[in-house]
Amino acid sequence: MSRIGKKPVTVPAGVTASIDNRVLNVKGPKGALSLNLREEISYTLENDGILVKPANETKAARAFWGMQRTMVQNLITGVTEGFTKKLVITGVGYRAASQGKVLKLQLGYSHDVNIDVPEGIEIKTPDQTTVEISGIDKQKVGQIAAEIRRWRKPEPYKGKGIKYDGEFIFRKEGKKK
User: Fold this and answer.
1) What Rg value do the Cα atoms of the chain yield, rounded?
2) Which long-range contacts (CB under 8 A, 24 or more apart) does 120-129 make?
3) Which of 12, 36, 47, 83 is most buried per CB count within 10 Å?
């Protein structure tokens, strides 16, 4: 039994949810999102929220149950609050600048790295070493954050690179004389 799946997803005021042809559509103050629904799971709209239950007692239905409930919760959270990831750049000469729909990174390469910002994502650079990625779709926010981090992962000796805010980098001791 899924402990997460048992809880109904509450739909706050100002958010509308509807199910049409195995697609859940959610509209809120920040925008609209949709999710293709699995056949192994049954979804019911009630006055207190959206109830997610397995449609049958197969192993696949139990496996998808908690994940599908969390994906529905992410839709509701996205259209009400949105999602944010913060990246921290560490290293001499490493910096970031947001210029319209392009994020310009200087990461020690012989060229600047230009990353196009996808639709529905907003990137801010409060200072040269911080990048804040925000949007209503949790998957898109996490994906663009991972793509930016991939350009220069933090290394274990000096900690130089791009890391998530709050991420712990296991540090190694260097050579000794």
Assistant:
1) 21
2) 120/31, 123/98, 124/98, 125/96, 125/97, 125/98, 128/89, 128/95, 128/96, 128/97, 129/88, 129/89, 129/90, 129/94, 129/95, 129/96
3) 83
CA angle, residues 99, 100, 101, in degrees to nearest 5 = 110
Query: How far is residue 92's CA from residue 115's CA, in Å, rounded to a whole number?
Result: 21
DSSP H helices in the chain: 3-6, 59-80, 138-150
pLDDT 10s digits, 10-58 = 999 899 999 999 999 999 999 999 999 989 899 999 887 899 999 888 9
Say how many Å lie between the first and final Cα of the chain, rounded: 57
pTM of the model: 0.87
One-letter amino acid at 48 equals D
Return the structure tokens found at 73: 């919760």
Task: Express each pLDDT in 139-153 by its tens digit.
Answer: 999 999 999 999 999
CA 113, CA 102: separation in Å to the nearest integer? 10
| Under 8 Å between Cβ of 95 and 88 | no
| Residue recorded with tokens 């990461």 | 107
